[in-house]
Amino acid sequence: MLSSPNMYQEFRKLAVGGVVNNLNSSIVRNVVVPIPPMAEQERIVAELDLLQGIIEKKKEQLKAYDQLAQSIFYTMFGDPIDNPKGWEVKKLSDISSLITDGSHYSPKHDEYGDIPMLSVKDMRDTHFEYENCKWIGRIEYEKLVTNGCKPIKNDVLIAKDGSYFKYIFVLTNEREQAILSSIAILRPIIDIVNPHFVAKYLSTAEIYSKVEREYLTGTAIKRVILKGIRKLPIFLPPLSLQQEFAEKVEAIERQKALVQQSIEETQTMFDYTMDKYFG
Question: H or E element: which one contains 214?
Answer without folding.
Answer: helix 205-214
